[in-house]
Amino acid sequence: MSGVKSTIKSKDTEEWIDIVFTRPIGYCWALLFQRLGVHPNVVTVLSMVLGAAAGVCFFFSPATSPRHWFLINVIGMLLLVWANFYDSCDGQLARMTGKTTQLGRILDGAAGDIWYFFIYWAVVLRMWNEFIPFTHLRWAWIGLLIGLFDGFVVHTRQCRLADYYRGLHLFFSRGATGEIDNYEQQKALYESTPWRGNIIWKFFLMTYVNYTHEQEKATPQFQRLLRRLRERYGTVIPQSFCDRFRKLSFRILWCTNALTFNQRAIGLYLACLLNLPWLLFVVEIIYLGCVYFYMKWYHEGFCRRLAEEV
């Protein structure tokens, strides 16, 4: 277990299921890939392929495959769990081999988006000809609109902010050394990188510039706090303040975990195995939506109080 612990970013940010299940299995894969000389970014791409294949499996229902739909859905679950092992493995492998790169971070963040792009389309198509509960109306275009809203608005905002808050927690847990990825920094990197010979890298940078910009727009009180800290302390923030921030931030880490994978995946599995595909959107828009707004309200609230004291 000591080897596994050395590849975990922080125990604070891990759910128990990840500590006892996902991380140990991911570590075993990392050991294998290390021996084979596989680059962490290759593992990330493999996780994208597995997640996309899982999404296709969730399309099947009693209407499209009366005899085998349940088995195909279970296969989809197993593929998504496998993809999640690789999503854990790539970061562990990068830390073990020292091959941590900016591209790796961007790919890692994009992996989940690829999974859910295929998952949402599969669920929408699965619902298409089914009736809306207690009505004689089919989901059809209504289901498509709900799926697009969930995927491009709800899911994106939830994961983006949860990722940012976990990153901030790690930043202050490590003594607030270095810099937090920010919009101006990433924009300057994008503009200074030539297109020639860097087309793929420029594309990823473009998406990451927007990603960091949206994170900062969603957290005005934290940005205010950070500016005041820089004005007063420069790049050396007192450890006492870091400890206080970490203690306050720790109270909502359960929210960040809920909004990333495990609870979202449980909602997906229940929706598909019970053949109630619309249940996925209920879980994500209503339940996880409430978690998101509570998380943001709490975090912005304590950042506002801290900024007033600095």
Q: What can you tell me about this protein's structure?
A:
The protein is mostly helical and 310 residues long. Helices cover 76% and strands 0% of the residues. Helix 2 packs across helix 4 (69-97) and helix 6 (140-173) runs antiparallel to helix 10. It is globular.
Secondary-structure content class: mainly alpha
The major pleated sheet works out as:
none
For the terminal residues, how far apart are their CA atoms? 41 Å
Q: Which range does the strand content fall in?
A: under 5%
Total DSSP helices: 13
Low-confidence segments, given as residue ranges, are none
| Helical content (DSSP H or I, runs of 4+) | over 70%
Question: Helix and strand layout, with pairings?
Answer:
Blueprint: H1 2-5, H2 16-36, H3 40-57, H4 69-97, H5 102-127, H6 140-173, H7 183-192, H8 199-217, H9 220-233, H10 239-250, H11 253-258, H12 262-273, H13 278-309
Helix pairs in contact: 2-4, 3-4, 3-5, 4-5, 5-6, 6-10, 6-13, 7-8, 9-13, 12-13
Short description:
With 310 residues, the protein is mainly alpha-helical.
